[in-house]
Amino acid sequence: FIAAVLYNAVCSLYYIAGTGFFSGTGSTDLRLFFAAIPYVSILLIPVISSGADDSGFSDTFPLSSAERTLISFLTALALFCAMSITMLLLPACVSLFGDIDPGQIFTGFFLVVIYEACVISFCVLAFSLFSQPVAFVFSAVFIALTNFLQLAAPFRMLSFSYHFDAASRGIFDTRDMLFYGCMTAFFLLSAVYVQEKRKGKKFTGTDKKTFFVTLIIIVFSFLDSTRYYQRTDFTRDKQFTISKYSMLILSRVDEPLKITYFRSPSLVRLYPQVRDIYDYLNEYASVNKNVSMRLLDPDKEKVSGLLDDYGIQSQQIRTGGINKTEYLNVYSAVAIEYAGKTAVIPFIISANTLEYDLTRNVDALLTGKSMSAAVLCGNGMNTSGDYTYIIPWLTSQGISCTELSLQNLSEELSAADTDTVLLVFGSSKLSGGDAAAVESFILRGGKVLFAVSPYLADISGDWTITKAENSALLEMLASYGFGFTPELAADISCARITMTSDTDEQGNPADSTRSVQINYPLWISLLPQKEARQGMTMFWTSPLTIENGSITPLLVSSTSAWTIDEDDSGQTKLFETNPFIVQNARPDISKKQLVLGAYLDGKIKGYFTPQESGNTKIAVLGDQYFAHSLMMEYTGGETGDYRNLDFLTHMILKLDGEEGLESLQNKNALSTPLYKISDTATFRSVMIKTNVVLFAVMPLLYIAAYIISVLRRRKMNEEFRRRLFNDKKQ
Residue ranges per domain, the chain? Predict the structure, then answer.
């Protein structure tokens, strides 16, 4: 019972601490939860298997060695399964905060049982070989070694925890099943053999042949499992299954298309998920007989020339142990060849975006079509010092990108191809003539994403909000049906930022500065939604009003948002932006859902010229800073937050009519944020209840079960003694 309490508590604590579950950056992805189980098993399984020796059986029972082994095995396995039932409380608690994937839970818990069956079978063998203390230590050491074998490349396929990776993500892989099954059969068969030897049985030649033939069958079954296998995707959105759109693109391949995967062997032992890349490439190539795939080791001399031909360079990753840090140069790149043309994915570490990258490159090789975008910084900023991430990011997504100059805007837009998506950030520096040039581009059939607002923020200073100089572009958008009101949006679902303060909590001067974390309602954290599957962050956003039947909401706030009116009295700032003041502001008005982005797919009438467009696509966001480098660095922390750039790619695909690629862009990305509870007080209340359930109620359940079992056993013993006394008396 103590082992059961520790098992549940440690796994839950590892998940909560590892994901930062209650820190505001938590995730409903249960991979860390399942990852803890093999390591908790190092001590847990030897404990529950300690009754597997002969001391647990009476010689009066005519049981064979095979029957005793099977009973010991099934008893320990049943005990573990009983312990695991209460582990379902953690996914249940997590589902209160966000969406969990039922497929991940099913495959995870299913393989937990198969994994533990394998480990228990070894413990049964160990307790058949040695005395209890020695067997316990031997089992624990063996389990620990097999968990860490994945760190040594030659032995990774024998690692118990290595074969657990796919199931923790919702993938059922027969290779993992057969590995655990073969190992379980081997250990149980060996345990029977050991017990028979200890009884003094002398094996005949037939017995020995049968034993060794069985071992050979087990070994070859394991070896064949790596050649003939099946992977089944149980995830809710079929994240690891090739989409119909990709199959359609591949069906057009009528000449040999070669896919080459360059993978460093050292990378496999460090990142087991790269195995998924190889498996996915094989599955991708199997769709069409004209598509072939090969795996090459870049460390071999003959391959180095190919790397140079493709322009593939190694990437440096950090590795090491407790007392050392090493840097390795590794390759994980994909080259695609078709009809004398080549496309390259320079570095990929997981299969999350692999289908999108493969399909867009294959489509480009087949059709010769490439996507393009043009950036117009209408607020006086630029892509070299302000929006520095945009061009490199879009280039990595297969979208060629250029920046337009304000000085020659009319000429450049007149010459621009209407297949190019125009990205407009801000409008304060755009004159009426500039706005007319943009409208002319739209009327010719151009697609535009406007990230604009009636206000400017001093983002590198004290965050003061001022009115934009020119309003010509905003007036043009208003004529199309995109209205702006003199307000800023605020939301309970907001970014949590770290600020330094030289005052104490009462506002008095402090002896030293302190760092505090603050919820900042003016930086809105959008919940996952159709057009932003991972959510995103918006800064000092102006809410939109929709005044055209062809316009639909694109991005919306939570239902607990509100607006802050502009102060146009001239005596104070337009808006209060001080985080220490804003965080304590309590709006008196009722909260509601706000439209922060809108989308038009239809016809418009010109504002500057009396002309009607054909069917056009326009997207408008009330935030000109969502893709600004400084703002993303504010909220990205050490690991970075690139959801805003993902959204930018998504919008280019949407505006360009690439619905197929649009569906693939975030297909494999897990939507795991804690979005169901946005109110701070409610979040804290549910957090306390969750901790009580996991770390108080769950242990109490085991204590209650222990007390009930003790009382029941005592009652049975008393009943036995009473019957024995009555028998003697008679």
Answer: 2-235, 244-354, 370-669
